[in-house]
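Thread: "does anyone have the structure for this chain?"

Original post by V.I.:
We have the sequence but no experimental structure in hand. Need at least a predicted one for the grant figures.
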Amino acid sequence: MQILGGFLIAYGVFCLAGLLLQFPFLYHNPKSKIIIKMMGKLGYNILILVFGLAGLIIGILILA
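Reply from O.Q.:
Generated one for you, tokens below.
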């Protein structure tokens, strides 16, 4: 379970860093373009924020 917790924390940090730094590969791949077209860019940013926070919180709870 410690490996899962570490992975979730790393995933959460990556999502939040990608959101703050606007990594091009998060916004310009085909799947992301479809989601952005359906939800809008703000909705996609909120989705990344939710997944990032969920990964961090669940990872910290697993390790605690």
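V.I.: this helps a lot. The chain has one domain: 2-63.
O.Q.: and Residues 2-63 form one domain.
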